Amino acid sequence: HVEIPEIANGVIEVKVIAREAGSRTKIAVHTEDENIDPIGSCIGQKGARIQTIIHELNGEKIDIIEFDKKAEKYISNSLLPAKITNVKVDKKEQSAVVTVPAEQLSLTIGRAGQNVRLASKLTGWTINIKEQETGKEISEEAIIGDIAKKEDRTTDEKTEDKEEVKEEIKDKEIKKEKKVTKAKKKPAAAKTGKKKKAEKEEK
Question: Do 72 and 89 meet the contact criterion of CB atoms below 8 Å apart?
Fold first, then answer.
C-alpha cells in the first residue's frame, strides 16, 4: 500500500490474489476511474513500484492483471504474458476453452503448468487450452496430471541413479580390497622363497 498510494486511498481495488509463495503471484486489480491505468499505476514508472515489492518478496515474480466483469476478457488477461486468440466459456460448467497459437502454447501453460494453474485460481474458472493450428485440446486436469507424472518419473530416475552410483562405488571398493589383499600376499611369498634358498646354501 505504501508503494502504491492509489491502492491505499481506494482508487484502485485489489480484486483477487493467486499466489504460489516464493515463486509467482498473479494480482487482479480494478478501478472505476477511467482516467487511471490500474496496471500502470501498480507497476510504476520504469517498474519502480513493482520492483520494490518484488525485492521485498525476495525476487518472487508478480503479474498485475486487469480485472474484467466479462469472463472471456478476464480469463484472457489472467493468462498474460501469453497472447490468446479466443476464449469460449461454459458458464454452466464454469469452464473455458482458450485457443492459442502453437508458438504461444508453452507460455500459456507456463513452467510446470504454473501460468494456467494460477490463472485458474485467480478467475475461479477451469481453463482448458486448445492449440489453434491442430485443434488439439488439453484439459487443465491433463496438464497438471502430466506434470505430476513427469515429476514422479524424475524423482524415480534420480533414485535409480543414486542406487547405481552406490553400486558402482561398492564394486570399486571390493576390487580395491582384493588388490590390497593380493599385494599383501606377494611379499610373504617372496620372503618364503628367499628363506628356502638360504637354507639350501647352508646345506
Answer: yes
